[in-house]
Amino acid sequence: MKILYINALYDPYIAGGAEISLKLIVEGMQARGHEVVVLSMAPEPGMRVDWVNGVKVYRAGLRNGYWPFTNDRPLKLRRLLWHLRDAYNSAMGRYVREVLQQEKPSVVSCHNLVGWSIAAWDEIHRARIPVVQVLHDMYLLSPDSTLFNEGGRSLFQELMRRLLRRRHIRKSHTVGAVVGISRSVLERFTVQGYFRDVPQYVVHNARVIPDVGKPHLREEGQSLKVGYIGTLSVAKGVAWLIRQFKASGIEGDLRIAGGGKEEDLAYFRQLAGDDKRICFVGYVNSGDFYATIDVLVVPSIWEEPLGMVAVEGLANNLPVIASNRGGLRETVAEGINGMLCDPDRPDSLGEVLVTLWRDVTRYNRLAAGARSSVSEYLSVERMVTEYEHVLQTLTTDHADA
Fold first, then answer.
1. Is the pLDDT score of 63 beyond 80?
2. Mean of per-residue pLDDT scores for the chain
3. For 238, which of 54, 57, 77, 131 is 20 to 30 Å away at the CA?
4. Residue 18 in contact with residue 7, Cβ under 8 Å?
5. Which residues of the chain does CATH 3.40.50.2000 include?
6. How is domain 2-206+379-400 classified at the architecture level of CATH?
7. In terms of Cα–Cα distance, which of 343, 341, 298, 295 is closest to 318?
8. Residue whose C-alpha is closest to residue 149's, from 276, 302, 336, 344
9. Regarding the domain with residue range 224-377, which homologous superfamily does it belong to in the CATH classification?
10. What is the pLDDT of residue 153?
11. Is 61:47 a contact under the CB 8 Å cutoff?
């Protein structure tokens, strides 16, 4: 097969887990003898070709008001204009048409289409090439890609969401197949009427995470080193974690790694106040960070599509405390490798922190089973094989149609 992969970004431009997973998929498929090409975006105008580990990568300049992959937050009107154009960006569709004509792939695998818009689907259909859509987030449901609003959506926000996604449901029925990186994210779309009569698959992401050896076991009376790593935002539950850690009264400290928008960082530091037990460590190597903590907390209050950071923590022999939201319920199993808490019961997070601090036996049992519980997510071969099956099935069905 000759496969064209379309995504907002590609290595070395990385905004999140989608780019990490896509690189593993692309290079895995190439290693199996398939011809692969990537179409991604760049902030500079025009289109150029790069080569990344032997993979041909087109980088097309985004034709919209600003480059969105920064920590800056444009004014509300500017964001609205950006999303209005992104609802259907014909200018970006022309890039897709150009690459399709040049490369003539046998199948196209679309991933995050933010910036590209569903104009990409139309160009692929016009070229009579089968397409699979992989769902990494909620972008096709909502311009903000999360469907999260701390205070609830206003009537105006909901009307704008429906306006900006008015074509998406109908056009989703025309793709050849759809893949969710979790059962949860796929169901969020199907219950809204997306991808009707389209073959559906779930393919969990995978990561290469070295085995760090035996888990560190705690002893009675030890303090608890709590950690968070990732984007620092309200949707990720950082404020909830800070409040609950301070209120829990446990003996220990809280290390917060990662970055975010400056206004969010200032808010979280204000919440932490002068509590010396809370430390913001910024961007750090994740493996080094996991070695400094006893438990990882993933307190997302939005529907996390999968939550690979939880997998990373578990693979590093750490029990994980996670909110019972979205794909996190598919990786963190209560009483097996971690504990779940409920954003609708804010104190539940503090209660779980106290439990793992006091109950050393339970902590050690969860740590001992952590890595083995996510063995599926540590197999890149498994992930590549499942995507290969989806693409081969799609191209065969398309040829027989």
1. yes
2. 94
3. 77
4. yes
5. 2-206+379-400, 224-377
6. 3-Layer(aba) Sandwich (3.40)
7. 295
8. 302
9. Glycogen Phosphorylase B; (3.40.50.2000)
10. 59
11. yes
- Confidence (pTM): 0.91
DSSP string, 200-258: EEE-----------SPPPP-TT--EEEEEES--STTTTHHHHHHHHHHH--SEEEEEE-
Q: Classify residue 101 by burial, with Cβ atoms within 10 Å: 0-12, 13-18, 19+.
A: exposed
Q: What residues have CB less than 8 Å from 254, skipping those under 6 apart?
A: 226, 227, 228, 241, 242, 245, 277, 278, 279
Distance between CA atoms of 164 and 196, rounded to whole angstroms? 20
Res 401 pLDDT > 80: no
Any long-range contacts for 377-380 (C-beta under 8 Å, 24+ apart)? Answer: 377/204, 377/205, 377/206, 377/207, 377/308, 377/311, 377/315, 377/331, 378/206, 378/207, 378/208, 378/209, 378/311, 378/315, 379/206, 380/24, 380/28, 380/206, 380/207, 380/208
Helices (H), 252-369: 262-272, 286-290, 308-315, 347-358, 360-368
The pLDDT of residue 160 is 85
The predicted model gives 28-33 an average pLDDT of 98
CA separation for the pair 183, 161 (Å, rounded): 23
- Identify the CA nearest to 181 among candidates 9, 316, 21, 37: 21
Token pair 């010396």 is found at 276
Q: Name the residue with higher pLDDT: 307 or 108.
A: 108
- Interval 173-230: pLDDT, tens: 999 999 999 999 999 999 999 999 999 999 999 999 999 999 989 999 999 999 999 9
Band (pLDDT 50/70/90 cuts) for residue 151 is: low
**Element (DSSP H or E) covering residue 392:** helix 380-400
Query: In the structure, what pLDDT confidence band is assigned to residue 150 with cuts at 50, 70 and 90?
Result: low
244 in Cβ contact with 345 (< 8 Å): no
